Amino acid sequence: MFISFSNTTPCIYNILANQVYKPFHAYLFSVGKALKKYFCHFSKKKNPNAALYKFLNFIFLFEAVKSGKIAMPKDEKSWKAELTEEPYQVLRKRGEEPAFTGKYWDNKEKGIYKCAGCGQRLFSSKEKFDSGTGWPSFTEAIPGAVEFHQDNSFFMKRTEAICSKCKGHLGHIFPDGPKEKGGKRFCINSCSLDFKLLGSRKK
Ligand SMILES: [Zn+2]
Fold it and tell me: Is residue 71 part of a domain?
């Protein structure tokens, strides 16, 4: 079974390590370093067992993809074919939908907001509030679902919110949310989201 992976290892290894999951790679690197120390100590060799180190890294990454913790990388062509124009522009090109135009800014139904790119669960309607901005606003995300990046575009210092699984752009996070709920405001584009209703609608 292992031999069949060997041809694909360098390609997937590089893409995952460099583009998709840097924090995880950093973790693997520290695991690899510990293993390297271990093998050097017992074999009395100066050079680490590079092949073993790479192989173990690949197995960790392979498991992470298989268990759904990270998504397989897709090229821009595949994203373009898969998404309609608006979600593509926002999720993949970091665009922004105009205020009061998205389908969820005024949605008050109970349910879960998933990522329109990969389907990961991002926000619960329990954390949604009316910010008056015209974009869906939340005080908190589902733990581990959203990552943050510093965004210095348009001469502003903002914190970008991205999906932790597919790395799609969701919106920004600001510190002016309701104080009694932690003070955060996740300002999210409707077209980055896919709403799943909980239960049935009242008639
Ligand atoms: Zn996603």
Answer: no
| Residue 183 within any structural domain of the chain | yes
Same domain, 106 and 176: yes
Instruction: Say which CATH number the domain at 166 has.
Output: 2.170.150.20
Ligand 1 centroid from CA 28, angstroms:
23
Q: Could you tell me if 37 and 44 are in contact, meaning their C-beta atoms sit under 8 angstroms apart?
A: no
Helix (H, G, I), strand (E, B) or coil at 170: strand
How many CA atoms, within 13 angstroms, populate the side-chain half-sphere of residue 108?
A: 3
Positions marked catalytic: 187
Which residues lie across from 203 on neighbouring strands? none
Question: Cα of 199 to ligand 1 centre, how many Å?
Answer: 24
One domain for residues 21 and 95: no
pLDDT tens for 147-198 read: 999 988 888 889 999 999 999 999 999 999 999 999 999 999 999 999 999 8
Which residue range(s) make up the domain with 35? Answer: 2-66
Nearest to 171 by CA among 126, 116, 124, 125: 116
The predicted model scores a pTM of 0.67
